[in-house]
Design a protein that fits this description.
This protein is an all-alpha fold. It has five helices and no strands. The protein folds into two domains: 1-30; 58-146, Orthogonal Bundle (Cytochrome Bc1 Complex, Chain D, domain 2). It has helices at residues 3-25, 58-70, 72-75, 101-110, 130-146. The protein is globular, with a radius of gyration of 20 Å. 26% of the residues are buried.
Length: 150
């Protein structure tokens, strides 16, 4: 038998084994980030302490206005979340490397099945365009950067 075929076969088996091991070690939600302990926070209170930048870009200011009109009722002032209502968007779970800007657009457009937090599913947001959500995302990203989330 050709040594190259044996090597490729062994590499394939090793790869499948590693993949299987990763799946078994998963936290059940398909991600490695655990929901934080919220037991010390009063129901309806902000989940995250958010520092607001001294200056927001013009587009982020527009995003802030849209956020306040369409998102803050659930996600709280400055995207700090609300215990028992919705998660903070100024949180490492929503950092750009884990939730892209497109993830925010898709969430607003289609809603989201609960997967990181136990708040329940998020419905689609009526009355916002993809452009609106892009401005909201800029606002959230500027808040995140100010709070050390890059």
């Amino acid at each position: 038998m050709n040594k190259a075929v044996v090597f490729v076969g062994l590499a394939l088996v090793a790869g499948l084994g590693a993949f299987g091991y990763q799946m078994v070690q998963s936290t059940g939600g398909g991600h490695s980030m655990e929901e934080p302990d919220l037991s010390g926070i009063e129901e309806g209170a902000a989940i995250a302490a958010v520092t607001v930048p001294a200056n927001l870009s013009a587009n982020a200011q527009m995003g802030e206005r849209i956020f306040n009109a369409k998102c803050a009722e659930c996600h709280g002032t400055n995207a700090a979340g609300q215990k028992g209502v919705a998660p903070p968007l100024v949180h490492k779970i929503y950092e750009p490397s884990h939730h892209s800007d497109m993830a925010f657009i898709m969430a607003a457009r289609n809603g989201v099945r609960a997967h990181h937090w136990s708040f329940g599913n998020m419905p689609a947001i009526e009355g916002v365009t993809d452009g609106d959500v892009k401005m909201v995302t800029l606002y959230i990203r500027e808040l995140q950067r100010e709070n050390g989330i890059n």
